[in-house]
Design brief:
Length: 314
């Protein structure tokens, strides 16, 4: 596909979750099921190998098959896609880019190395080398709140000025003051925030889209809601407040006990669209099915606008 730019990178994007059987082997048939469900939902873009894709717990062979499968599917249907090239070892991130550049994703999504928090010079040198390896395909930086180095709004602006080839960032987002501070960076980068904060991010801030945790629960619901935000801003903001409150209360019993990876997979299992289990790979702990059932009942009752008339989220 044509490389994405800071202008064309926008909308509600959804991730592939890593579907596992009882032996923690990847269920490749479920990857196909997920891709078809996301295409049916008319998602704005697909990416893989983020937190929910367990990029940190894959073999290189699995990564390559995921990349080839996703690229072939999206190319055949004209769906924008990104390859998550992140790895806990910097040289493996570089290898992921070199191995899959010929698949022509819209962008590569990467994290900063995690063993030590990098100095500014180290961040710039690291990303400069990745940009050179990926060219002409751009980079999107995934900087979760649990990262060893969480960049400030002023640092994002500086990074965009000093390193060509970065078009976007995936961050948690923030309050109104955070968005004001991000505006300078947003003139150069496409800012994506958490799906549950997309309405306020677009209406009162500088967000252009979301790699949506809301789409883990309901891809169709997330895309419908995302496209309604600028058409019905007051309704969207009220619904966001509702989403935030329901997510906070529903996830409170499992926050801190389970990883974000496990929670994202439990959301997908609760939504029912991916026909998957909440199983995550060792050594992470999987959320019990009883909790998944509780989440499903809670979300369907409290957030009916995310589900269609049949009760399905696909």
């Amino acid at each position: 596909m044509i490389p994405l730019t800071a202008t064309t990178l926008k909308g509600t994007w959804s991730t592939l979750l890593l579907p596992l059987d009882e032996n923690e082997a990847i269920r490749w048939d479920n990857i196909d099921l997920q891709l078809n469900a996301l295409a049916k939902a008319e998602i704005d873009g697909i990416y893989f190998n983020g937190t929910a894709g367990e990029f940190f717990n894959q073999t290189n062979e699995e990564f390559l098959q995921l990349a080839q499968t996703t690229a072939a599917f999206c190319d055949a249907r004209g769906i924008p896609f990104q390859i998550g090239a992140s790895h806990l070892h910097p040289s493996e991130t570089l290898r992921h880019i070199e191995q899959t550049r010929e698949l022509n994703p819209g962008a590569f999504q990467v994290i900063l190395p995690e063993w030590n928090p990098l100095t500014w010079e180290e961040i710039r040198n690291y990303l400069t080398r990745l940009v050179a390896a990926a060219a002409p395909i751009p980079l999107v930086i995934y900087n979760p709140p649990n990262a060893r180095k969480v960049l400030l709004p002023s640092e994002w602006a500086r990074l965009a000025s000093e390193v060509d080839g970065i078009i976007g960032i995936k961050v948690a987002g923030g309050d109104a003051a955070w968005h004001v501070e991000m505006k300078h960076a947003a003139n150069q980068l496409s800012v994506f925030v958490a799906g549950i904060r997309l309405a306020s991010g677009m209406i009162h801030g500088c967000a252009r889209g979301s790699y949506s945790n809301l789409a883990c629960l309901s891809p169709c619901g997330a895309i419908r809601w995302g496209r309604s935000i600028l058409k019905e801003p007051e309704i969207a903001l009220a619904q966001e407040a509702q989403i935030l409150e329901v997510f906070k209360s529903a996830l409170k019993p499992i926050r801190g006990r389970f990883s974000n990876t496990a929670i994202d997979k439990a959301l997908a299992a609760a939504g029912g669209w991916a026909d998957g289990s909440p199983t995550v790979r060792w050594p992470l702990a999987s959320i019990p099915q009883s909790e998944v059932d509780r989440l499903s009942k809670t979300f369907r009752k409290a957030l009916p606008f995310l589900f269609n008339e049949t009760g399905s989220s696909a």
